[in-house]
Write the structure tokens for this entry.
Amino acid sequence: MDWVAPPPWNIQFELFFNIMVLMVVASCISGAASALTQYFGLNYYLGTFVIGLVVLFLTIFGVDLIRRASTYMGIVILVLAVSIYTIGLLNGHNLLDVMRVDFSVHGWSQLPKAVWNGVTYSAFQWVTVPAILVCGTSVLKTKQDCDRSMALTFTLNMLGLGLAVLMLLCWQHYYLTQPNGTTLPTLTTLKSFGANWLVALYGLVLFLCLISSAVCVIFGFVNRFENVKFLQKVENVPVRRALVSAFIMVVSMGISFVGLTNVVKYGYGYCGYLGIAIIIVPLLTVGFYKNRKFMKENSQDAKVSFEEAYEKN
């Protein structure tokens, strides 16, 4: 599909998408480099360079491999993550006691902040939508396919994220007192167990999540911009894709030098605010209306394709 300039009303989304691609890839590189530092004592900046090269190589040559392996990777990540967070939860302070003490100190005063953080988190996570559109159109053919996919995705993410939050809540007394403990708090916590096998399993989960996320997001970016007019002079498609991938990787690696904490705190934070204004609010208002209108007009055709719905809306 040839790239076309977006209409004026879509420029905000293009801006958000491009910035968030940088933030997501930078956070993945920074997170993986931080893990290499904590696991093997590798210099952070050298780790950033190594991870950047791995992601670039996979983006150019390994997308099909990751796509074919995504189902199995997802199952492995889910099983290991649930197991790790459950073990951490059971070995931490009693969750009910922690929540009781917190409530006695703060009451309901922290609830608005928690809800707001949840909304901003969902806002910047929308950057994954273009990658899903690129990678999922081969299997998501109807509205029912999309509904089932989103329901499953929501359930699995809620399970993993919920367990992670509960476990870290039970261990905040520990990792908050450790040097750089908040960079990778789960890893910091697991190291205190003295169970090397658990630390190794978490490392596997962490690298699978970070590397696969970076590759998928970059692939969505490459698919979006590989056919821009000035790149048409490069007739070799793999080379053209490599140039786009290399560009986004170099910029993202530069951003990752500021550290994972700063990327998440400032990059994700401010992009989350931007996402609320230009994605969530329009989606729940204009987008909801347009989707309902389209489905009503095509209600007689139960096989309305995902591609057709996306093109018309």
